[in-house]
Design brief:
This is DUF2071 domain-containing protein. It comes from Streptomyces liangshanensis. This protein is mostly beta strands. It has a single domain (35-247), classed as Acetoacetate decarboxylase-like. The chain contains 4 helices and 13 strands. The chain has helices at residues 40-43, 114-124, 173-179, 216-219; strands at residues 24-38, 51-53, 60-74, 86-97, 102-111, 128-138, 141-150, 157-167, 183-188, 191-198, 205-214, 231-242, 246-247. Strands 1-3-4-5-6-7-8-11-12 form a 9-stranded mixed beta barrel. A hairpin with a 6-residue loop joins β7 (141-150) and β8. The chain starts with 23 loop residues before the first strand and ends in a 7-residue tail after the last strand.
Length: 254
């Protein structure tokens, strides 16, 4: 199993880098974080060149994260109330590059607005998918549904229900590892890139899984989960800024 060229940066609840001049702004609201353990050997081939699996105590993790995207905006312009606001559900893995920067790798991003899907695919080479989606709340229970329209596999779906519990005063080391992610690894025009982000520390809650049926992880190239997720969390959300991309695989300066 490949190892990082330098030790990974520490896992920090707050951003490890200065807030960038924003390339993109947005808010992520009403998030449900579901995570399963994954075999690092299954994860490694799914990551961009120049990155390796980021492990916690020797284990890799695969995440299914459902939420409401709110008001995507470019630079310092106001976010879009309609085109920039929609449900989204992501399949994500965890990576580290030659600089030791920890990040997220998306295997799929299902969203219910076609134009942001097209922009995300064209501008950032992200695996955005156009899907029929909904987020509904009934008291302390949220239900997230998604069924893929395009490009496929058509009909790939998820139906997640979580009951929100008490706020978490101090997340565990694993909970920080799974949520405190300050960048995204991707490949654009054959070149690996790191897109940094900043946001306030996550306000996390315990959550109870009240329903989960999905095949998005398998559609993203991962083995289908064999059981219940090992971690279920909820967050009311945070405002987010993405900075300009940087090369991910360049050797660090001496």
């Amino acid at each position: 199993m490949p190892t990082p060229a330098v030790p990974p940066e520490p896992v920090t609840p707050g951003p490890p880098r200065a807030e960038p001049r924003p390339l993109l702004t947005q808010s992520w609201l009403d998030l449900a974080f579901l995570h399963w353990e994954a075999d690092p050997a299954d994860v490694a081939p799914l990551l961009p060149a120049g990155t390796v699996p980021d492990l916690f105590e020797g284990r890799a993790y695969a995440g299914l994260v459902a939420f409401r995207m709110h008001r995507i905006g470019w630079f310092r312009l106001p976010g879009l109330p309609y085109l920039g606001t929609f449900p989204e559900t992501n399949v994500r893995l965890y990576s580290v590059d030659a600089h030791g920067r920890r990040g997220v790798v998306f295997r799929s991003l299902d969203a219910s607005r076609l134009l942001p899907v097209l922009v995300g695919r064209a501008a950032f080479n992200l695996p955005y998918m156009w899907s029929s989606m909904s987020v509904a709340r009934d008291g302390d229970t949220l239900t997230y549904t998604s069924r893929r329209r395009w490009p496929g596999p058509r009909g790939a779906y998820s139906a997640i229900g979580v009951r929100v519990g008490a706020p978490i005063a101090e997340p565990t080391a694993l909970e920080h590892f799974l949520t405190a992610r300050w960048g995204m690894h991707s490949t654009v025009l054959g070149r690996p890139l790191f897109l940094p982000n900043t946001h306030p520390r996550w306000p996390l809650h315990r959550a109870e899984l009240v329903g989960c049926a999905e095949d998005l992880l398998a559609a993203g190239g991962l083995p289908a989960p064999a059981g219940a997720p090992v971690s279920v969390l909820y967050s009311p959300g945070v405002p987010v800024r993405f900075g300009r991309p940087a090369r991910a695989a360049q050797a660090p300066a001496s």
